[in-house]
Specification:
- The chain is built from four helices and no strands.
- With 79 residues, the protein is mainly α.
- α1 runs antiparallel to α2.
- It is globular and about 30 Å long.
- It comes from Planctobacterium marinum.
- This is Acyl carrier protein.
Length: 79
């Protein structure tokens, strides 16, 4: 499984949405499932999947699937 697939699966699992709903332009608060509580579940899921510890600024900035990918690249996760 590629890192992109792992990231999409993390979003699907944490937000409890279908995998086909996860797209790069999926953004925070544009679907009912991605609220502030789900955002923290998503962060925990991403940290677990990629074995990283995101700093606070990155957690706040993670406003879309595309942005999550960009942030993870700072932690040496290749896409």
């Amino acid at each position: 499984m590629t890192n992109k697939e792992l990231l999409y699966q993390a979003f699907s699992s944490a937000l409890n949405i279908e995998l086909n709903q996860v797209k790069p332009d999926l953004t925070y608060n544009t679907i009912a499932e991605w609220d502030s509580t789900a955002h923290m579940i998503l962060i925990a899921e991403i940290e677990g999947v990629f074995d990283v510890m995101l700093d606070t600024d990155d957690i706040i900035d993670m406003s879309s699937v595309q942005k999550a990918q960009e942030i993870l690249q700072k932690y040496d996760v290749a896409f």
